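Margin note from the TA: students keep mixing up input and output lines. Inputs are the sequences; the output is the structure of the whole complex. Example:
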Amino acid sequence: MDPAKPAAIRSFVSVGPDSHFPIQNLPYGVFQPRSAGAPQIGVAIGDQVVSLAVLEDRGLVRVSDRPVFDKPTLNAFMALGPAAWHQVRATISKLLSADEPSLRDNAALREHAFFAQKDVHMRLPVDIGDYTDFYSSREHATNVGTMFRGADKALLPNWLYLPVAYHGRSSSIVISGTDVRRPCGQMSASDTGPPSFGPSKALDFELEMACIVGSGNDLGRAIPAGKALDHVFGMVIFNDWSARDIQRWEYVPLGPFLGKNFGSSISPWVVPMAALEPFRVAGPVQDPPPLAYLQTPGDSAYDIQLDVSLQGPRMDAPHRICRSNFKYLYWNIAQQVAHHTVNGCNLRTGDLLASGTISGPTADSYGCLLELAWKGTRPLEFPNGETRTYLQDSDRVSMTAWCQGNGYRVGFGEVTGRVLPAIIE
Amino acid sequence: MDPAKPAAIRSFVSVGPDSHFPIQNLPYGVFQPRSAGAPQIGVAIGDQVVSLAVLEDRGLVRVSDRPVFDKPTLNAFMALGPAAWHQVRATISKLLSADEPSLRDNAALREHAFFAQKDVHMRLPVDIGDYTDFYSSREHATNVGTMFRGADKALLPNWLYLPVAYHGRSSSIVISGTDVRRPCGQMSASDTGPPSFGPSKALDFELEMACIVGSGNDLGRAIPAGKALDHVFGMVIFNDWSARDIQRWEYVPLGPFLGKNFGSSISPWVVPMAALEPFRVAGPVQDPPPLAYLQTPGDSAYDIQLDVSLQGPRMDAPHRICRSNFKYLYWNIAQQVAHHTVNGCNLRTGDLLASGTISGPTADSYGCLLELAWKGTRPLEFPNGETRTYLQDSDRVSMTAWCQGNGYRVGFGEVTGRVLPAIIE
């Protein structure tokens, strides 16, 4: 499938050209009807959700001896592996196509299986085991390094040789729409202490995307780069909320901790890697060439457009403050997976690998306020006269992502969250 | 209960004075009879295991409407909270006491409920959500800082103000007895690259202990230091295997990753905090005084003796290479919990908080080979003439821990593991 060609396949469900959810996408999510009913797995199409639990119950989708779609997470389905993912995707694509009568012409079944997206409550789609955060944007690492160490020492010696990463916190990953509490913590203006304690004054977002691991590897056995994508089920948008002042005081020598682990937000629909396949593009030239275990010939990046908007409580509307693209990342997904497991570390179904902040080459493509307002020195200006260097209470941050085809989009919907004031106890 | 007094309570089960598992201990574990049967929860006493699943089934132990002990992990039981933990502990203590006939005089029930420890296979006792590794030994942080930054810059400015920590990898935590594969990875002798790739040449152990979180907190709500211990179910011994060469090249600026996440080992028996209560002692003097949220008046440390032994494939017996004590830690458990959650980060049932390497003041009390052999400059010598600076293939590392009472021990058993050679692919 070539994204420059008009979409050949059409659904009997009406889908506008700007919708994120045409039949080319078919992302998976966990939803609960607002009226009643248990959490279950569905697929988005246009402004609808199709319940896979219903289709499985009726025998229209069947991938295992036991039901896997009447579940509160995608884990049981993902654990079946890539052959099962492809089989289910092909089945759903056929069931929703304009030519296929089994759903199209069965009004009673459609009544039972279809829900308007506005009438459902989306839940965290995955039971996340371990969450890893990479640091794969050269522009982001360079900008942050320049601010804190100077331009000549911006990139540390290891950065061009390996996809730097650290382990993050799974427990505080929340679904889009969840408000996020401003954290309290220690901070030190001088970096040498003594610290003060209080609400963070440098609350930030980070524009990231994240892969969901569908099938893992045994402890002690690496995943070669050439097989890495067989282990990845799909992707979501990821907002890694960050408290820069807390982070800065705590992070030496063992890395970020309380500056990051108070909350991260993900978008509800997991876009399968198969839906992103037409949007593969070449990634940045890698020089020095990666070590053998990190080599990934061919188009290893994905052309995914990214937008961030901010709306303060006294603003009429959200205002775009960043436009970036997933293809800017220096280290690609296959390299991240190969590196993560080269020492034998085991990935498991449901693990989440986030990209790190995705900044582009221009000042309006930086993926966090630290960079956009350049460490507080270039405040962002908004139409109502307000400015921002970091987030204020009640600010709402929304991120969206989509691949642009000819007359259609494969999109991720959005991840949104609002800042709640700190609790002073 | 005062550890200097002889143990007043006795069990009808015979327990020697050096056993780790007298009636004063009653640690929980998950076992599977080697003959047959499902994983279930038991309590160690002497050289026996008592099946709580059997006692629950017979109505002798009952803590919830639903069974919680016929499970493959402790999570369901732990999630009931501290009142339930105390009730069950009191019940088991009574059932096993010399004065109580219900088990003592029922040979048929004992036949069904008791297993010899040598006849059972121990499993990972907990479904671990997030694993956090602290860095709470001042001696360890000072030694490592001295080696890598010089004595004048050994402790970084934040160290005396907060319990430094980072998130580790849950997926690769294994039960005692599991062999651990030597990892491959990037390393650079010069710290500036270009790196080489291959098996780690600086494989190390780290002597740690870890708390298991029994009941968590809501996202956004801190746990005050004074309530912290209500959230901790118990403790285990923890070996945080580390590849120093991989760690050193990768760890700036975001902390350890592949140098640590290839494997960590825990002991199988979770010793309840109630069993450790008699062994509370004063911790190190903290100067500067901690910020208000980190203040913990009273005896906040635990006197737990720690031993590490090493046996190479050509050695006749294990040789002790370290004797340390949990009481040396600068930051105590309540401070770790209070700090971890002060930003609103949520702990969950089953989370694991490791202490960091526990080094004491003398050269024979250092908790890892990096310190014991002082970065390779002072090789350890063994009776058969061999030396070690780091671990060799087939070396076995075993750690044990116990509190010494008057005529009895409250112990942790051991955590042991052997090094397997790297896989070269």
